[in-house]
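Morning - flavin-adenine dinucleotide inputs below, output right after.
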Amino acid sequence: MARAVVIGGGIGGLTSGIALRRNGWDVTVLERAPKIDPVGSGLAIAANALKALDTLGLGDHIRTLSRIQGQVGIRRADGRWLVHTTPDAAEARYGDSVVLMLRATLMEVLADALGADQLRLGVGVSGVDAEEGIVHTEDGDLGADLVVAADGIHSKVRQTLFPEHPGPTYSGVTAWRGLIPRGDLDIRSTESWGKGLVFGVTPLAHDLVYVYATDVLPAGTVFGDEREELLRRFGDWHDPIPALLRAADPGMIIRNDVYSFDTPLPAFHRGKVALVGDAAHPMTPNLGQGACQAIEDAVVLAHLAGFPAGEEDIAHNGKERTLDGTHGGVRRADGGGGIDREGRGGAGASGEGDGGEWGHGRGALAGYLGAYTAARLGRTSKIVQRSMSICRMTKVRNPVAVWLRDFGVSLAARSMPDMMLRSMDEVLRWRPPVTAPASGPASDMGDRHPLQGR
Ligand SMILES: Cc1cc2nc3c(=O)[nH]c(=O)nc-3n(C[C@H](O)[C@H](O)[C@H](O)COP(=O)(O)OP(=O)(O)OC[C@H]3O[C@@H](n4cnc5c(N)ncnc54)[C@H](O)[C@@H]3O)c2cc1C
């Protein structure tokens, strides 16, 4: 059986493990932490990621956790709406609204779906030989046909594979996150923008409220009492923000400086290694897409990696897998010509591999990893950039510039009532690839490319 070693047991790593395992891979996920212990916060799982989770049989369970209702959107510090929509409108447009859930719950669902035998906790990876597919750990070396590097924003694997890349840069904002008991407060999902400040409020299951906030600060700023800092900034904002902050347990508030890529990687793979999630494309949280993109990555990678132990791939030994699930030349994500073994576009890529005991020889491996880069690099780079441009809008502090920003957003919303949703079409209309018979029609998606939106 073909073996995949996944480095990192975060959302990207666990989802990759589940998706590969469903395709018959022998999967080991290595996580250096002794237990899966995500930061205590909420997480938005949007329509695109829900569709990806559907392919793993997990989407419907996640949907039952949704608590979002009423108007959602962006407000000013005094509570006036700048732009808003409703979960129903999102559902009508994308077939799903967003699910706001505890990060810990998602991790639990993913860890359960992966299976305890596949997850090795407390195992740190110290290095990778990308060409040979060898993962060095404190407990010895592991050989793999595919290595998935899901080791997060400060990925050591990425630094080893792409030493020339500058890495993530500080976005200029720091972010607080916290979980607060709802009490008898009336909570709606909103995000409010002030002068260089953002405050978000979201109801969760178990009568909890997830709050997040950002401010423009130098990287590495240290505070003695994070709740006091929040009260100082947001204590006179619209309801229920002050009451929530007063009810917060200071020990339940965490803060991280926010980093993002200014420069995309040249590829998401090298040798036998594929990068997923924040290791590949760290982004600011302004679109709530970091984890969603990690989930998309995982599902696309597993789809392209195929079914190594299945008859289908053995029958097509040495042939590369296309984005529509068929075999033969590898197509670009835009449905155009082939991709060469390094993942660069070109018309002449063929499926010749050096074979192997199963369907993915070295050549085939390079082919599907090239297809993975082609499918994911452009899309995620755009989302990284869009997240950063919203981040820039929230960083504005000059009162005139703030007034102009708010006026511009509300004017655009008035002239185009579905603006808030429509602006997200490209992100949320994404659909996961559909596996089709080797020689049959591409999929039930007609001529449309499987990675394009409906
Ligand atoms: C304030 C904030 C709010 C956010 N809100 C949202 C949201 O609402 N929706 C959304 O989609 N995204 C959101 N995100 C982004 C999201 O949290 C990340 O994009 C996502 O968690 C990335 O997952 P990952 O698996 O790639 O990386 P990580 O979650 O960082 O996981 C990496 C894992 O690898 C392990 N690891 C690292 N090095 C090694 C090693 N050498 N050996 C073994 N294990 C190793 C780490 O311990 C860790 O468990 C938010 C981010 C922030 C900062």
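Note: The chain has 14 helices and 18 strands.

O.
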